[in-house]
From TrEMBL:
Pathway: Protein modification; protein glycosylation. Its main location: endoplasmic reticulum. This is Dolichyldiphosphatase. It is found in: Endoplasmic reticulum membrane. Belongs to the dolichyldiphosphatase family. Keywords: Endoplasmic reticulum, Hydrolase, Membrane, Transmembrane, Transmembrane helix. It catalyses: a di-trans,poly-cis-dolichyl diphosphate + H2O = a di-trans,poly-cis-dolichyl phosphate + phosphate + H(+). The keyword Hydrolase applies. It is an enzyme of class 3 (hydrolase). It is a multi-pass membrane protein. Residues 52-171 form the Phosphatidic acid phosphatase type 2/haloperoxidase domain. Its EC number is 3.6.1.43. It comes from Coniosporium apollinis (strain CBS 100218).
Amino acid sequence: MEDPPLASLSLTHVNYNPDDRLSYLCAWLALVPQGLCITYATLVWSTREVEVLLMFTGQLACEALNWCLKRYIKEERPRQMNGKGYGMPSSHAQFVAFFSVTLALFLLFRHIPHPTQTHTPITFIERALLALISILGAGAVAWSRIYLNYHTPQQVLVGCAAGAGFAGVWFVLTSYLRRAGWIDWALDMAPARALRFRDLVVQEDLVDAGWARWDSQRKKRLLKPEKDR
């Protein structure tokens, strides 16, 4: 009895031209969404910040929207492409567009960190620069899909528009939930308290989070007399 043919896991399988260095770079850019999902999960678990959880939830909802759009439009990928599945809109372009626009909206309109005695948060100009870098990075990922012949320019543009548009809708929705007190209500529930979820990143700089308290405790220990140690 012959062995069945092997299958390829399309989640990470990327076709590229080995003789083209730019094609090789684009192949790595194609893995950005998978890397961001790992980053999301790591940050949700390590920081327990509800804002990160909200962003991750929106990202998954955006992916669900892409799944529905592809099966509704049913447009094929470019003829040069040997991959499977529909191509309109590009899921990579929609993913990174949602991420970059959501991050930009957070940095520019929601994240207002307060300075402490030990740390000065980044300025608005610096936050705007980070937002711009994020958007440019998303543009590079989206362009790589065209270069690798996974999508047509139209499929990528529609993906970017869908991701950016959904990011705007999600930002407005989460802003309403904050103003209406739904976020505070959810954080007061037993599961959220048991998992130690918090909502500090809006006003607290992540770099400084917890560090000032640790530094204060360290200084107190150093000031104690030897006999009290």
